Structures are given as structure tokens and as C-alpha cells.
Request: fold
Amino acid sequence: GENVEQHPSTLSVQEGDSAVIKCTYSDSASNYFPWYKQELGKRPQLIIDIRSNVGEKKDQRIAVTLNKTAKHFSLHITETQPEDSAVYFCAASSLTSGTYKYIFGTGTRLKVLA
Amino acid sequence: DAGVIQSPRHEVTEMGQEVTLRCKPISGHNSLFWYRQTMMRGLELLIYFNNNVPIDDSGMPEDRFSAKMPNASFSTLKIQPSEPRDSAVYFCASTLWAGNEQFFGPGTRLTVL
Reply:
């Protein structure tokens, strides 16, 4: 079945450095790719998303890129800060035969070292 | 709007007992999702509703799990009988339509002894 692979599972960076998390999806019908941030003990919250008709989207220190041909998308965080430490989930959504599939990756635990 | 509301926030029960988790989606949202989160399996979609109708329940683990959405403002996830392996955080999320941003509730932490 469809799946979303996310790498790496853990990532440690020094404060001020950049962090990149990558996801690969299998369903070529996927057309919506959100990224969620989940702080410890909290709920996942959307931080940025991209649709299949766009190749890149940026919001301050956060950017997402999408390569439809290769079926992968990435989250880029620049100038990382301690408060960026959290688990990040990617997801891919598609509409097939009238049914939406919304599949999450397995998550990346990001640690920003002060 | 208060956001997605879930109750209870914590539930501790003994194996074999019935557990009912409740969710109130954001007013006006047409789709509702139930997820289970564990360290081992990550975030798993259990079932989702569109306009109160169950659309995809392929993620429901087994017959012990059932979900209902009697109206646009309320949904339940029931486990009967509960087992220790059901221990997890259960999230409810709602969205305007299924292919869009999901707004998660605070979750219910379930512990089955």
C-alpha cells in the first residue's frame, strides 16, 4: 500500500545551523504535503504545507521543496533555535476513487544544541 | 473557537474494560480523523469521517475498535474489550475538507493495565 518514508529519525544540530528532513512518498496521486511539529507532550501542529502545483514554499526560517518526479519533499529550517527542538512529521495526501488518503511519515526528532 | 476538544485527557483502565473516547471537532469542519500514536508505530490513522459518514476505516486495528459520528459536532472511539497493547495517545483531528490542514485535539492518553 501507499507509504511515506521519512529520514532521518533523529537529527542533532548546533544552534544557528540548518536542518533538513526528507520524505519520500509512493502514491503518485498525492497532491498535498503538510509538515507538522509536535513538541513534547503536545499535539501536532501544522508549520508549513505545499501543494503539487508548487515546487517550493518559504515562511521565514522554514521552507519546503517538492520534487514530483522523484516523489520526495523536504523541510528546511535555517538558523535553528532551541525552540525548534521537537518531532517533525511529514504527510502526503491524495484523493483516490473518492477517498482521501492522509499518510504520515514516522517522524524526525530534532534536537538543537545551544 | 476553542479548537478540537477531546475527553477525557487521561484514562487509566483495566484490561477487559470498555473505553470510550470523545471528540468535538471545530465548528464548520467537514472531516474528522482519529489517530493513535505510540513510540513504536508512530502516528497511525484509524478512521476518518466526511460529513459524519465513515469513509476509510482500514486503519482500525480489529473488531474491538469502533467509531461513530452521530452528528457534525461529536464523535466517539470505543474500545471493547481493552487490552494493554491499546495503551497509546489517541488524537482526534478535524479539517474543512479531507485534503487540507488538520487541526489536532490535545489527545487522550490511554493506559490499559
About this structure: The first strand of chain B starts at residue 5 and ends at 7.
